[in-house]
Specification:
The strands form seven sheets. Strands 8, 9, 10, 11, 12, 16, 18 and 22 form an eight-stranded mixed β-sheet that branches. A seven-stranded mixed β-sheet has the order 3-23-25-4-5-7-6. It has a two-stranded antiparallel sheet with strand order 1-2. It folds into two domains: 47 residues, no CATH class; 354 residues, Endonuclease/exonuclease/phosphatase (Deoxyribonuclease I, Chain A), CATH 3.60.10.10. The chain is globular and about 85 Å long. It has ten helices and 25 strands. The protein is of the alpha+beta class and 506 residues long. A hairpin with a 2-residue loop joins strand 20 and strand 21. Bound molecules: adenosine-2',3'-vanadate. The site of adenosine-2',3'-vanadate has 9 residues, from loops. The site of adenosine-2',3'-vanadate (KL2) has 9 residues, from loops.
Length: 506
Amino acid sequence: MIGSAQSLERSMIGSLIFYGLYPLTRFINCVTAFPSMSYYPHSLERETFEVVWRVWEELSETHTAPEPLQRPPSEPRPLFDFTVMSYNILAQDLLEANQELYTNCPLGVLSWDYRFPNLTQEFKKWEPDILCLQEVQENHFTEQLHPVLRDMGYTCVYKRRTGTKTDGCVICYRGDRFSQVSESLLEFYRPECELLDRDNVGIVLLLQPIITQGSEVTAKGPPLCVATTHLLFNTRRGDVKLTQLAMLLAEIDYIVRNCKVKGEHCNVVLCGDFNALPNMPLYQLITTRQLYYHGLPAWMISGQEDLSYNVHHRRVFAPLWPSTVGIDDNCQYTTVNEPKSQITSTQSPERNLQYNHGFLRRLRFCEAACVRPQDLELIPGVTDNTPDPEDKHPYTTRFRQTISHYLNLRSAYGHFIPGTDRAEVTTLHSEVGATVDYIFYSPRLGISGADQKGGGQRQSQGLKLLGRLSLLPEEDLWSMNGLPNEMFPSDHLSLLAKFQLDLNPV
Ligand code: KL2
C-alpha cells in the first residue's frame, strides 16, 4: 500500500498511468469511496490496479540525425542496441550522516536491509547492458552488490572516494556484450592544489561491443568510452566542480584521440551525478563545448542554490585552475606522457602521441620554435615569422577566460516531462527536488549534402537514442512521501537510456 487514499488520488490527477507492466510497482487495493447505492457494480468497489509510475518512452529520433543512406534490402545493416543505467543509490553512511533530509520517510524504508533487495530488483527488471552507480558504499559493494551483479553476468570496476569517505562509483558491463580495452580510475584530489582538496572520483572505461555465439566472438563494434562520476556536492564551489569535470573530460578526450589515431571513431557515454542543474554553466560546458567563466559567481556554476544575496560570494577568474593540474583550457592533458590517472590497460592503448594538440600548443609559445631556419622559403603570411597580434600577449591568449572541449555530447533526457512545462527530477529529499543526474552521449552526426555524396562515412558513427525510462515530476514523488519510499529505494531515480550503434560503419 503506497501512501494514503488521498495521496493516491492526488497522484492520479498527475501523470499516473494505470496500465502496462512495471514490476517495481506495488499492487494497490484501491478502496473506492462509493456509497453502497453506487451506480457502479459492486465488483468495482474493490479493484486491484497496478500503478505504473515510470513508463518506457520510445523515441523517434526526430531530434537526432537523418537515417543513413539506404542499403539494398538484401544487405541489412548490422546494428547493436544496448542500454545504459545511471543511478545514485544513496550510500547508507551518507543517509545516516544527513538524517534530517529524510524525516518525511517512514524509518523502515531507510534501512539498507530494505533498500538493497529493492535495488537488485530494479537491476534485474531492466538488466541494463551497462550499469553506472554512484554512492556505492565499499562494504555493501564487496559483500552484497558485487556478488549479485557478478551472478547476473556483469564485470564491475569499482573506485572508492579518497580520504575517509566510504562510498564510490562503479561501472558494470555485461561480459557477453562488451570486452574491456582499458580502465582509468580518476582521483580528483591533489594534495599540492588548494582547489582540488575534495575526495571525488571518476571511472573511464574503454569497451568494445561484441557479438558472441557460445564462447566465440562473431562480430565486434567500434570502441565505446563509458565514464561515470559523482562531482562535489558543495553548492558554493562551482569552481571545484568545473575543474573536476575538466579532469574527467581530459581523460575521455585522451581515449577518444587514441582511437582516432588508429582510425577508429570512439562513441562516448558520460553519466552520473554532476550536482549541477540543467542549463547552468557546468551543464552548458558539457553540451555546448564552451564556457566563458571569467567573473562568474562560483555558486552560479551549478545553480543548485541562489546565493546572490551573499555579498561576499566567491567569484571565478582566469586561469580557473593552476597549470600543475596538467590540463589546458581545452580540457586536454598538457603532459601527454604522464596522464594523471591510474591506468591499467588490458590492451595497452597507444599513449605516446607525439604531435597532439597540447604538444603543438606548447610549441607555439616556445622561443626556439620562433627561430627562422635559414633556407626556409619566405611565403608572406605563411612562413614569415611575423607574430600574430594575439601572440603579443601569450598569457591572455593561453588563459582565454573560456574553457572548451572537443567532445560532442547530448543529454538523453530533456529535463521536462514530455509535452508539459513540469520539470523532471532525478533527486528529491526534504531540501531539494531537482535534476542533477544525467546520461550524456555522443549523438549520430547530422550530414550535409556534400557528406552524403562523399560516401557517408560520418553518418553511421555516433549513437542513436532509441528510448528512455521516463522520470517523474516533483509532485508525483511527494505523493509517495518523497524519496526513498517503498517503491524507489534511493533519494535519486535511476536513469535508463537505450542506444543503437552500427557495428560496421559503412
Ligand atoms: O546531492 V547528492 O547528496 O549528489 O545525492 O551528493 C552529496 C549529497 C553526497 C556526497 O557528498 O552527500 C549528500 N546537504 C545535503 N546533502 C548532502 C550534504 C548536505 N550538507 N552533505 C552531503 N550530502
